[in-house]
Every structure is written in C-alpha cells, then in structure tokens.
Amino acid sequence: MSKDNAIIARILQGDRRALARLISRIENDGRAATDTLAALYPHTGRAHIVGVTGAPGTGKSTLVNELAKSYRARNVQVGIVAVDPSSPFSGGALLGDRIRMRDLSGDPGVFIRSMASRGNLGGLARATSDVVKVLDAAGYETVLVETVGAGQSEVEIARTAHTTLVIEAPGMGDDVQAIKAGVMEIADILVVNKADREGAERTRQILQAMLELGLKPGYGQESKHGARHHSQNQDENRSVTVPAQRWKPIICSTIALQGQGVPELMQAISDHYRYLQESGRWAERERIRAANELDHLLRERLIAHMLQRIGPQRLKETVNRIVARDVDVHTAASDLLAQAGLTSAPS
Hints:
seven-stranded parallel sheet, 13 helices, alpha/beta, single chain, 3 domains, globular
C-alpha cells in the first residue's frame, strides 16, 4: 500500500494523527494534497456545515464551545474549524480558539483546528473548504466553521456553510451594525449572545424589526446565495421551478458562558437542517458551494499561470509605469493579459 493510500485509509477510519498531518499539508501547500483530496472526495457530502460569524467580542468561540459540548451529549462527532485573523505584517495568527475550547480537549469525538485567515476575503482561509471536506470524509457529522468577524466580507461564510449563524451582542456601540454587516442577507439564525447584559432586549427587537422589514413579497423565493430550487420533470425531461416553503430567520437568545439558550439554539439549527432536506435547498446549496469553490480555484490558478508567463520583471516594470502615470491600470492589465496569451476580460 502506498503512503497516500495508507493515509487515506487511516483518515476514513477516523485516525486523528493522519487527519492532522493531511490538514497541515493542505495549509502549507494545497497542491501537494490534491491527489489525496481527490481520493477522499467520494466520501464527503454527509456533514452538516454550520457557519458561525459576527463581530469580534460577541462571544463566537464560547458559543461554538457550548454547541460542541451539546452535540457531544447527543453522541455526534464534531469538527471545529476556527479561522483566526492573520497579522498583515508577519502573516502569523494567535490561534487562540484552542485556549477558549480547552475543555473539549481529550474528547475523541471532537477535532479542533485553528487556521490563519492569511488575508483572505471574509476571514475564511483559502484551505478552509478542503479542511471541511477532510473532516467530512473522516466521519465528523457536524462541522462548525467559526470566522474572524471581518465586517461586510463575512458574507463569504454563507457560500461555505449549509446553515449560517450570525452572532450579535448588546452594547457593541451601534444599533444598526447588523444592517451594515449585511445580516439579513446571510443569516439563517440570528443569535443575541450575552443576553444577560443591558440592552439585550433592544437588540432583539431591532433584529425582529429588520426581519419584518425584510420579509416582503418575494423574499425567500430566491435563496440568499442567488439561486432557485429546481426539480427534474422526468416525463417531459425538462427543468421546472418548484416553489419551496420560505425560511424565516430565527432569533435566539443565549448566555454562552452559562450555557443558557443553547438547547433552543440547537433546536433552531436542527429545524433549519430539516428545512434544507425537505425543501430541496440542501442540494441547491451543495451546487452553490461547488460553483463558488470552483470559481475561486480557477481565479487563483489562472492568475498564477498568467504571472508565471509574464514574469516578475515585466510585472515590476508595469507597476512602475502605472506609478509614473505612463499607463493607466486598465490598459496595463489588458496589455499583460495579451502578453500572457489571454484576451482582456470585458469591462
């Protein structure tokens, strides 16, 4: 048995050391793990991916810790991917979620991986999607993905998760912060954490008012990711649009430090999972996840291929010409694309 075949077999058996080793390979050089990921891919698609996002200070890590403990009480295998912000200077990250979740250490049914965002949009590390697939293949039934909480770019989590939790907390200094963060566009479940604090009820009322304003005719017919649910008419061999029951985001209140409200939040997550399965939205979100991942990978590889063909010297010269106002950015980009043998994208 080859080395790769051996690690694949061990991961499918839930071997934690093999799992950690492969994830390290993915983080360090994703292409080095391509063949292994391809072999594991047929074993994926079973895990419920739950995204947890919100502004820093809302208690995301503490809540994720409590959710994991509740899942374990139900004997559910839980994978946790906690994406921490990277330093813009060193590229390093604190990866402090392991400290906050230390009471989960030693539980063989929980696997925690902290990752650095490395400057990627939405605080999601480039390798996050691959790590989630590996955890899925290893048998983790629920995968919790916690983002860094990076403002409006948090919407990226909605293209990665099946169920998205947006965490709010009272006293964050801005009653309309949720509107600016695009909460209504990405949240399946809204969570008012630290609900024992002054202003918690006001925060809940504001979120409820936002929901009522957002639920106008047509809301929910298109998914938040911009796609409709379709089914195949076997008799006529054509695709028809099937209206699915609308999902109205649920508001839950929690005090994560005390574990209060977590059972109700677990029920809301379960309800959304059931909705996805019964309405056909699960398959739709799987298609959206695949399309989004393919789009990102194509962009990354096309840019890498183009830069390789152009060469660093020509790129440096072009930047210098832009700075000297000898050429504008649009013209420079068109010239570089032409040199690389690619036609310029339409403006």
